[in-house]
Amino acid sequence: MLNYKFILMSVYLMLIGCSDQPDHFFHTIKQSALDKEIEYSNIHRMNLDISHMTKSIDESGFSPSLNASFSLKNNLSRSWPQAWVAFVINISIKDKLLATMTKSDSLHNHTLKVSINQLLPKFGIKEKDIHINVVPISWMPTYPLIIQPAVAPK
User: Fold this and answer.
1) pLDDT tens track for 1-41
2) Closest Cα partner for 79 from 139, 29, 31?
3) Which of 54, 65, 113, 152 has the least CB density, counted as fewest CB within 10 Å?
4) How far is Cα 80 from Cα 143, in angstroms, rounded to an integer?
5) Do 71 and 114 touch, CB atoms closer than 8 A?
6) How many CB atoms lie within 10 A of CB 46?
7) Alpha carbon distance 25, 19 (integer Å)
């Protein structure tokens, strides 16, 4: 009899843990009746803008290389000021995909500076022919970490 009480109690706790509770911090998910689309609450949204895009081609060595940098800025300042962001960078030359790279880094005060370096297949490529596309993967909040030095007792 004791085993049945334990099993019933654990099933009850699992059902409570899996239930959708309104106004829950991390689990406010609404499903549309028409297409079952999952919509997250506003705390889960992040809207990143790409700005300050610079591209330069270095042809001084044996193989030309692309040096590019841009900034990602979160427009929704109500989210966390620090967040770990993962994204894919697609580099193409005249609509032909050259490289795909996955990057992740941390936003600080809602901004992130990204720098990339990619070898080019030939000399003579113009900067205007190179297109950089950023596709988001995911993000999660980060929290500041402070490490205090240990003070030796006297």
Assistant:
1) 556 555 656 555 555 444 444 443 333 444 555 555 556 56
2) 139
3) 152
4) 9
5) yes
6) 19
7) 14
